[in-house]
Amino acid sequence: MVMAIQSELRSFKMPGTGIPGFTEHEEAIALAGIFGAQQFVDAVVRPTLDYWRIFDIEGLSPQADQAREKIAKNLAGLTRLAAAQQARISALLA
Predict the structure, then answer these.
(1) Nearest-angstrom CA–CA distance, 50 and 79
(2) Are 77 and 33 in contact (CB under 8 A)?
(3) What is the largest CA-CA distance in the chain?
(4) Predicted local distance difference test score (pLDDT) of residue 58
(5) CA atoms of 14 and 23, how far apart (whole Å)
(6) 81-90 contacts at long range (C-beta below 8 A, 24 or more positions apart)
(7) 86 has pLDDT over 90
(8) What are phi and psi of 55, to 5 degrees?
(9) CA pair distance 3, 92, nearest whole angstrom
């Protein structure tokens, strides 16, 4: 289960990613405060990982423990991306 979660988290793309001009639309949606990377992390990723108690599970296999470490790295990366997006939005609003 932990390995599957890690795989999904690593490969997740927002719906609509392949649509031409999606990046601009994504920024506009985030700029409007509707939904951005920070909301994704705060409202989807963290609560889901907390609900599943991913970081509290004991007795994992070595592969599952390695996947959990990757989940932590993915979460840190998403958090950095969210902060960068928020900085861009703040700069646009300034």
Answers:
(1) 15
(2) no
(3) 49
(4) 95
(5) 10
(6) 81/37, 82/36, 82/37, 82/38, 82/40, 82/41, 83/38, 85/27, 85/30, 85/36, 85/37, 85/38, 86/36, 86/37, 86/38, 88/27, 89/27, 89/30, 89/31, 89/36
(7) no
(8) -85, 0
(9) 39
Residues 6+ apart with CB under 8 A from 3: 63, 64, 67
Distance (Å, rounded) from C-alpha 70 to C-alpha 33? Answer: 29
pLDDT tens for 25-83 read 888 888 888 888 888 899 999 999 999 999 999 999 999 999 999 999 999 999 998 89
Full DSSP string of 67-78: HHHHHHHHHHHH
Neighbours of 9 (CB within 10 A): 19
Copy the structure tokens of residue 65.
Answer: 């423990």
CA distance 83 to 89: 10
What pTM was estimated for this model as a whole? 0.81
